[in-house]
From TrEMBL:
Pfam families: AHSA1. InterPro entries: ASHA1/2-like_C, START-like_dom_sf. Belongs to the AHA1 family. Transmembrane segments: none annotated. It comes from the Bacteria. Gene3D superfamilies: 3.30.530.20. This is SRPBCC domain-containing protein. Residues 15-140 form the Activator of Hsp90 ATPase homologue 1/2-like C-terminal domain.
């Protein structure tokens, strides 16, 4: 069975503004953090650098697999301390509902992680995505 983290937010901006917030390096810094890169083209890179709670430098990286009409971007996600075979996939989908824009984040592929680490990593990622989506909503709901 595929394990998936799926979360959505509704924001008060256009879909174009939402796309820009997700794919422009300067915009990403305003809600996700510094040193985030997501190049909106097939083969483009994803990279996030941060320090964990213990002060250790961490890196997540990946490649963009698909981009659809500035409404959807899918990219791989791998942490530097994960086993070589562990790679997840993240998809951002933008749409409109009742004159408002929404973003759905769907992060899958957790079954590639070792079973003894999977539950904790998924819990950490769910908390992380909830935090980042809250920050994005606050940033865009001006």
């Amino acid at each position: 069975m595929k394990e998936v983290i799926e979360l959505s937010i509704i924001v008060k901006c256009t879909t174009g503004e939402l796309w820009h917030a997700l794919t422009d390096s300067d915009e990403l810094e305003n809600w996700w953090g510094e040193d985030i890169k997501l190049q909106p083209k097939v083969g483009g890179s994803f990279r996030e650098e941060w320090q964990d709670d213990d002060g250790n430098d961490q890196v997540a990286s990946g490649k963009v697999l698909s981009v659809k009409d500035k409404k959807e971007i899918t990219f791989t996600w791998k942490e530097k301390d994960w086993p070589r075979s562990a790679v997840t996939e993240c998809k951002f989908t933008i749409g409109t509902k009742e004159k408002k824009s929404f973003l759905t984040v769907k992060h899958s592929g957790w079954e590639t992680l070792p079973e003894d680490r999977r539950a904790k990593v998924m819990k950490d990622f769910k908390v992380g995505w909830q935090y980042h989506l809250k920050e994005l909503k606050e940033y865009l709901d001006f």
